[in-house]
Design a protein that fits this description.
Layout lengths: L4 H11 L1 H6 L2 E5 L4 E6 L13 H23 L3 E12 L6 E6 L2 H14 L3 E10 L5 E13 L4
Antiparallel strand pairs: 1-2, 2-4, 3-6, 4-5, 5-6
Helix pairs in contact: 3-4
């Protein structure tokens, strides 16, 4: 069963309600990229009337994590995933609708393939860039994902 934006958004409602109620939504996902949007609203703003950094982080992490989940699902293997490190840069106030995009699907393919071949955990740095409706970058997030094939018990 292929992961679709609708399936991921429904999953978020039940498993990641803070992201769902903050307005974080997957818009597109395919083999190479994922796009997630979130609109600046009262519920997700900071005292400076822009989007709270953590809401941006949820949307950015979802772009990377959805790609990893999709690749794990299509591998047919029992693989664990975990964010082991992250960093971010903020370049402009986030107001209006912000779109985060990650285009690192091919990197995930290699990490999962290597994890399956070697039986060793693999790490991969993935980038998600957030832009406003004018296409101006507001933030950039990097997440280090760890993937490892689970042992049968």
């Amino acid at each position: 069963m292929k992961l679709t934006p609708s399936k991921i958004n429904t999953f978020n409602l039940f498993k990641l309600p803070s992201a769902y109620f903050s307005g974080v939504r997957v818009k597109t996902i395919d083999d190479s990229q994922c796009t997630v949007t979130v609109k600046h609203r009262w519920i997700n703003q900071n005292p400076f009337k822009s989007m709270f950094w953590a809401v941006q982080g949820m949307a950015a992490e979802l772009t990377t994590g959805a790609l990893v989940m999709s690749k794990i699902k299509s591998s047919g293997k029992n693989i664990s995933m975990l964010v082991s490190n992250n960093n971010a840069t903020f370049t402009k106030k986030a107001t209006g609708r912000i779109s985060f995009k990650c285009e690192d699907g091919l990197k995930v393919d290699k990490a999962i393939s290597d994890a399956i071949k070697t039986g060793e955990g693999q790490t991969i740095w993935m980038n998600a860039v957030g832009v406003n409706k004018e296409g101006i970058q507001v933030s950039s997030f990097n997440f280090e994902w760890s993937v490892k094939v689970k042992r049968k018990q």
